[in-house]
Amino acid sequence: MADMTDACPAPILSVRNLEVTLRTPVGDLQATRGVSYDILPGETFAIVGESGCGKSIASMALMGLLPRIAHASADRCRFDGQEILGLSRRKLSRIRGNTLSMIFQDPMTSLNPVYTIGDQLTEVFVRHGKGNRAQARERAVFLLERVGIKNASARLNAYPHQLSGGLRQRVVIAMAMMCSPKLIIADEPTTALDVTVQMRTLALLAELQKEFGLSIILITHDLGVVASLSDRVAVMYAGQIVETAPTAQLFADPTHPYTQGLIRCIPSYGTPDPDSELSTIPGMVPSLIGRQKGCAFRNRCPLAFSDCGQVAEVALQKTGEDHAYRCLRPHDSLIAHWRGLHGESV
Ligand SMILES: Nc1ncnc2c1ncn2[C@@H]1O[C@H](COP(=O)(O)OP(=O)(O)O)[C@@H](O)[C@H]1O
Ligand code: SF4
Ligand SMILES: [Mg+2]
C-alpha cells in the first residue's frame, strides 16, 4: 500500500493499518480496514464519508470507546509519543479529556444533566491535576467567554437543559479545551444544530485551532463542511480510506469516483449550473459483514469494469506528493472523467 504519510515530521497522531472488527449475530463486520494516517501538530484533518463508512468506529478505537463486540488491531496507533491502542482503562482515562479530547454530535453525550456546567468544567481540570478549584473556575470562565458565552461567570451555575443546543455544544467545546489538549476529535460536532449555528460553531472551532495551535480531526458526512476548514482530507468508504489529499488539491483534482460523487453533491461545487438539479450518488454503502473482495464502490461506480469485482484488494496509488487514491483506473482517466462531467477539456 502506498504510504505518503511517512515523510511528515513528528506527527501528534500516527495510525497504521487500523482494523476494527465487530462480532455481530450475523457474522463479523469489518468496520475499518487498513486505515492509516498522520496528524501533524496544529493541523485540521477531516475524515469524510457517508453514514456507515467507519468514521466513528475508527476514532472510538483510538479513544478506547469501542463497543464490547469490537476487536481492534493496528501496526501503530501512536499519540503524543505513546502507543494508545489497548492501553488499560486507567491509563486511557489519564489521556482522555486531557491531551486528547472528543466532541460528539450530541452535546448531551458529554454533559451530565444533573450537574451544573461549572461543576462539569472544573471537574475535568481538577481530575487531571491541572490546578485547584479556583484556578479551574477561572479557566472555565475564560473559555466560556472565548467560545462566545456571555455572562460566563453566572452561566457556571446553569444546568445543561437551561441552555440551547448551540450553547450546549459551545460548553462542550470549552470543556474539551479545559486541559489544553493537543488533539481534539470532533465527530459530526454540528450535525444536530441548525445551519446558522452550525456555521458559527465550525468557525469557532477553526479560530480556537489557530489560536491554541491544537490539532483537530473533523469527522463529517458533509464534504462541503471541510472545504474551508481543513488542511487535509481523508475520504472513507466502506471502512477504507479511498482518497487522501490536501484539501485544496482534493477539490482541484478529485480522483476517486466516490470523491467525485461527493463533490457533485455539494450545492455550489457540484453543479456548474446553479439551476440544475443537485447530483446524488445512487445506491447505498454495502454491508461490511463477511470478507470483502474487490472494490467496495463497484456497485455504485460509473467507471466500474470487470476487474473491479475480481481483484482481492484495491491498493492505494500515489499521485503527487501527498495525494493518494484507491482505484484500479489510472489517474489521467479519472481526471478526464471528472473534467468531462463539468464540460471541461482535459
Ligand atoms: N455497536 C455496533 N454494533 C454493530 N454494528 C455497529 C455498531 N457501531 C457501528 N456499527 C457498524 O459499523 C460500521 C461503521 O459504523 P460507524 O463507524 O458508526 O460509521 P460512520 O461513523 O461512518 O457513520 C457500520 O456498518 C455500522 O452499522
Ligand atoms: S476500482 Fe473500479 S469500481 Fe472501484 S472506484 Fe475504481 S473504477 Fe470504480
Ligand atoms: Mg459516525
What does this structure look like?
With 346 residues, the chain is of the alpha/beta class. It has a single domain, classed as 3-Layer(aba) Sandwich (Rossmann fold). It has 13 helices and 13 strands. Strands 7-8-9-3-10-11-13-12 form an 8-stranded mixed beta sheet, sandwiched between helices. Strands 1, 2, 4, 5 and 6 form a 5-stranded antiparallel beta sheet that branches. The longest helix has 18 residues, at 195-212. It is globular and about 65 Å long. Magnesium ion (MG) is lined by residues 55-56, 187.
Task: Give a quick set of tags describing it.
346 residues; alpha/beta; five-stranded antiparallel beta sheet; 13 helices; 33% helix; 21% strand; globular; disordered N terminus; binds adenosine-5'-diphosphate; binds iron/sulfur cluster
What secondary-structure arrangement, pairings included, does this model have?
Layout: E1 13-24, E2 27-39, E3 44-48, H1 55-63, E4 70-73, E5 76-79, E6 82-83, H2 89-95, E7 100-103, H3 117-127, H4 133-146, H5 152-155, H6 165-177, E8 183-187, H7 195-212, E9 215-220, H8 223-226, E10 232-237, E11 240-246, H9 247-252, H10 257-264, H11 267-270, H12 307-310, E12 317-318, E13 324-325, H13 331-341
Parallel strand pairs: 3-9, 3-10, 7-8, 8-9
Antiparallel strand pairs: 1-2, 1-4, 1-5, 5-6, 10-11, 11-13, 12-13
This protein binds adenosine-5'-diphosphate, iron/sulfur cluster and magnesium ion (MG).
Magnesium ion (MG) is lined by residues 55-56, 187.
